[in-house]
Specification:
With about 280 residues, the chain is an alpha+beta fold. It has 7 helices and 17 strands. The protein folds into 2 domains: about 160 residues, 4-Layer Sandwich (Double-stranded beta-helix); about 100 residues, Double-stranded beta-helix (4-Layer Sandwich), CATH 3.60.130. Bound molecules: N-oxalylglycine (OGA) and manganese (II) ion. Manganese (II) ion (MN) binds next to loops. InterPro entries: TauD-like_sf, TauD/TfdA-like, TfdA_dioxygenase.
């Protein structure tokens, strides 16, 4: 039996009294796998996870993906993608300013991630909250005529386009990285493959164009949908503590990092990314 409490009226639960470092918690993890479909986001606080255990738990959700930015896979386990402002021996140990815009993870590949498990190794005392928005709630709140007008539209997601905007001050992507991330087309409204529930599938910076509409009209629509999608009523703001683990469903949520005093404080976050299937 899991002990849970809600995080937001419409989605997200906290599970309490669970020690995920204990191998005996595997059965509970398998319950979390099921709960994720229903609640979209699960918080478990106060954990002490080794990298191996983090990966082990994550594997119970599915196969794991490795990030195209290999320079940030620095823990010795390639399944762990590090987000951090910390440098060691002059080299960043993780990607700083990753996710400082609304997105769902790996929407830029043909089979985007179904879920991510983000573990807080070291966090600043203030700032660096992460915002999570339910795309089920966002879609369901749209007027029926808007739902009908976007239901069969698709959009082109571009990692190269995103990278150029988000990390304009860095070395551009290598040819190999570009080859691994060609533009892909996904529906604007997707169906949760387990529950059948619909959600908006949008994002800032990552979407290059809406297909079948003149660019201006497509961009205006995207703007409108993105603004709607992150309305306060669909958003849960998480204030991290060291040892927090959040598991979210990339098929029906978006998230966004918020800034912190990155010259004063250290932040180290470890993410595993579970493979998904083609959105429909
Ligand atoms: C991620 C992400 C946001 C944050 O881990 O995928 O976007 O606040 N993180 O670190
Ligand atoms: Mn992310």
């Amino acid at each position: 039996m899991l002990h849970t409490r809600p995080l937001h009226p419409g989605f997200g639960i906290e599970v309490v009294g669970l020690d995920l470092s204990d191998p005996a918690s595997d059965a509970a993890v398998d319950q979390l796998v099921k709960e994720l479909d229903r609640h979209s986001l699960i918080l478990v606080r106060g954990q002490t996870l080794s990298n191996a255990r983090h990966v082990g738990i994550s594997r119970r959700f599915g196969d794991l993906m490795t990030h195209v930015l290999k320079q940030f896979l620095t823990t010795g386990l390639p399944e762990i993608y590090v987000l951090s402002n910390v440098t060691e021996d002059g080299k960043p140990i993780g990607n700083h300013k990753e996710g400082w815009n609304w997105h769902s993870d790996l929407s830029y590949v043909a089979e985007p991630s179904m879920g991510s498990l983000l573990y807080a190794v070291e966090v600043p005392p203030v700032g660096a909250d992460t915002l999570f928005a339910s795309m089920h709630l966002a879609y369901e709140a749209l007027p029926p005529e808007v739902q009908a007008s976007i239901r069969h539209l698709s959009a082109t997601h571009s990692y190269a386009g995103y990278y150029g905007k988000a990390f304009a001050d860095r070395e551009p992507l290598s040819d190999e990285q570009k080859a691994r991330t060609p533009d892909v087309v996904h529906p604007l409204v997707r169906t949760h493959p387990v529950t059948g529930r619909l959600s908006l599938y949008v994002g800032q910076d990552i979407i290059k164009s809406v297909n079948g509409l003149p660019p201006e009209e497509g961009n205006a629509l995207l703007d409108k949908l993105n603004r709607h999608a992150i309305s306060e009523e669909f958003v849960y703001r998480h204030k991290w503590r060291q040892g927090d683990l959040i598991i979210w469903d990339n098929r029906c949520t978006m998230h966004c990092a918020t800034p912190y005093e990155d010259t004063k404080y250290r932040r180290i976050m470890h993410r595993t990314t579970v493979a998904g299937t083609r959105p429909f």
